Amino acid sequence: MDRENATTNIRRRSDAGRRKTGHSKSNVRRSALETGGRRPSNSRTGMKNVKLQNGRTVRTGVSRTNSSKTSRKVRSRLKLPNIRIPGRYAAGGVALIILLIVIIFAVKGCGVNHKTPDGVVRNLIEAYDKGKESRIRNCYGVKKADDNLQQEIDATVKYFQAHNPQSIEISQCDSIYKDGNYTYMYITYNLVLDKNQSYPCISTYMVQKKDNNKYYVLSTSEITDDMSKQAATKYALFMKTDAYKQYATDYDKFIKKNPGYEEKIASKLK
Question: pLDDT-derived band of residue 14, with 50, 70 and 90 as boundaries?
């Protein structure tokens, strides 16, 4: 059918051409038959024949040449390959990420500030309040406590637990005196109890700056007699400061509002 349409179209156009140019009708027909009415191999016209009222047939449509085919080939080359990760590897990657997050938070939670004397003392009180012995030992600079230090840790943790505080509020933390690499520190804080009450506390610690330029709390057994005597003298002077007077005032107010509280705590420590 395409061949007949091609022959007919060329015949009609050749009649007009023959009258003007003198070309033979048979020659034009032979040329059409030799090509078989086929479209050129390098063109995809996408066009169709439309018959007009005057009997002429024209081809309409938009020509699509090899440029569109070339652009499709270029796009196909630019496509990235689909990479499929096996399920077991994907699950392993997720598990590894979760493990790293847990380790980061664990290390962060166990960290102790050894850069300053007040930093390590604050961390020690917070660790006693939460009963975290690993952090407590870290403040003392030991991985495993000896018998004396372990007894000191157990007694202090038990004291905090006897109050059963909901939280702790640190008021002040500063030095009473400093002698070389040793700093005698005090810290005042409140144990927040139920019924919106706070039990005022004060603690003192001897802190040493060691060779690694980090500060560690000294246990009771590490404090010499001379250090103890000097600390007692300095503490007597400290009792005249505003910081101590404020603590004493707050403590007296609490005891007046809660008579028998000290006896209650002492009974829990037996």
Answer: very low
pTM across the whole model = 0.60
State phi, psi for 90 to the nearest 5 degrees: -65, -45
Instruction: Give me the torsion for CA of 210, 128, 247, 171, rounded to 10°.
Output: 80
Q: Give the whole-angstrom CA distance, residue 250 versus residue 262.
A: 15
The answer to whether position 171 is within a domain reads yes
pLDDT (tens digit, 9 = 90+) per residue, 210-224?
Answer: 999 999 999 999 999
Confidence of residue 39 (pLDDT cuts 50, 70, 90): very low
Residue 206, domain member (yes or no)? yes
Q: Are residues 170 and 41 in the same domain?
A: no
What is the domain range of residue 260? 113-268
Residue 90 lies in a domain: no
Give mean pLDDT, residues 192-201: 92
Q: What is the pLDDT of residue 114?
A: 94
| Cα–Cα distances in angstroms (integers) from residue 56 to residues 6, 51, 103, 165, 166, in the given order | 13, 6, 85, 104, 100
Question: Please, what sign has the CA dihedral across residues 241, 247, 253, 259?
Answer: negative
As to burial, measured by CB atoms within 10 angstroms (0-12 exposed, 13-18 middle, 19+ buried), residue 114 is buried
Please tell me the total count of domains within the chain. 2
- Say yes or no: 48 and 143 in one domain: no
Among residues 53, 44, 9, 45, the alpha carbon closest in space to that of 28 is found at 9
Whether residue 98 is contained in a domain is answered as no
Separation in Å, CA 76 to CA 59, 65, 70? 32, 18, 10
**Does the pLDDT value for residue 124 go beyond 60?**
yes
Let me know: does 187 contact 202? Beta carbons within 8 Å: yes
